[in-house]
Amino acid sequence: LLEKKVGLLKGVVTAANFTDNASASARMSSIASSKLCLDLGLEPVMQLQARDRSRVALESDAMGASGLGIRNILCLSGDHACFGPSPMCKPDQSDMDAVQVLWMLRRMRDEGVYLDGRAIKQRPEWFLGAAASPFGAPPKYEAIRAEKKVNAGAQFIQTQPIFDYERFTVWLEALDKRNLLDKVYILPGLIPLKSANAAHFMADDVPGVVVPQSVLDRMDAAGDDKEAQQEVGVAIALEIIEKLRATPGIAGMHIMAVHWEEIVPRLMEEASLPRPVSELEVQ
Q1: pLDDT at 78
Q2: Which of 20, 154, 188, 224 has a CA 20 to 30 Å removed from the CA of 58?
Q3: In the 8-state DSSP scheme, what is residue 276?
């Protein structure tokens, strides 16, 4: 299954994200998925969450990823176990949060030392990322959170999905006031809506996501026909892409086509987004 999905995306996108037991639900590890993706010829972005890991385990997993050739790491605090489908486990291991993990990995890369001061014989070459929620708290407070992550070591930021463009630009303005747009690559999230039910689920049950009523009305107006709903979802996604690509401070897009990866090539083509350039082509 992973090989099939990588095949859909290879040559179409620059990199693919691999979650780390998101929503406290057990899945194939992000490090294993990322390595398989890398072997298939597509650059992975390995998510590394602090939940359930001590600082020693975080250092070990990050160095293991480096040894496997995985360079892109998205640092997260992680979802609490109460959000997962399994019976409640022992209290979460919360040794560090995302900001602290970013600081630790940046120090390991730039200074070549573990947290305990031991030297690293071969420094890792990581490109470190963080997540942001433009619609979580008021933009000025979310900007403070983003600034902490950038100061700790974040080189790129992936956001929650954008459906309300105007409110998203308010968050960007808050970042600009803190002179962050020249210090970090911003990759706004984009979810192509596959159905009206998916749109209402995003609006009602996903924290930090705002879906305007106008979007919900358009999805509902498609009726019960699944293909019609999908076409409206694609049209909405293309409209958002068009706005984002013309927005100063945007470096790319984080397309989250969950269980609908086959739509990504179409979005890229119809939006006339550039094809990724590999290191081999650059050489």
Answers
A1: 63
A2: 188
A3: P
Query: What is the distance, to the nearest Å, from the Cα of residue 222 to the centroid of all Cα atoms in its chain?
Result: 29
* Spatial distance between the Cα atoms of 34 and 16, rounded to a whole number of angstroms: 8
For Cα atoms 49, 55, 58, give the angle at the middle one, nearest 5 degrees: 45
Q: Which amino acid is at 68?
A: L
Q: Where are the domains of the chain?
A: 2-193+248-259
Q: Is the pTM of this model over 0.70?
A: yes
Q: What is the pLDDT of residue 243?
A: 97
Q: Is 269 within 8 Å of 8 (Cβ atoms)?
A: no
- Cβ 102 vs Cβ 152: under 8 Å: yes
Question: How much is the pLDDT for 283?
Answer: 45
CATH number of 2-193+248-259: 3.90.79.10, 3.20.20.220, 3.40.50.170, 3.90.1150.10?
Answer: 3.20.20.220
Distance in angstroms (rounded) separating the CA atoms of residues 91 and 34: 28
- Over the Cα atoms of the chain, what is R_g? 19
The answer to whether residue 87 scores a pLDDT higher than 90 is no
Tell me the residue type at 71. R
Cα separation of 142 and 168, whole Å?
11
- The answer to whether 237 and 199 have CB atoms below 8 angstroms apart is no
Helix (H) or strand (E) holding 212: none
Token duo for residue 238 = 């293309």
pLDDT digits (tens, 9 = 90+) for 106-152: 999 999 999 999 999 999 999 999 999 999 889 999 999 999 999 99
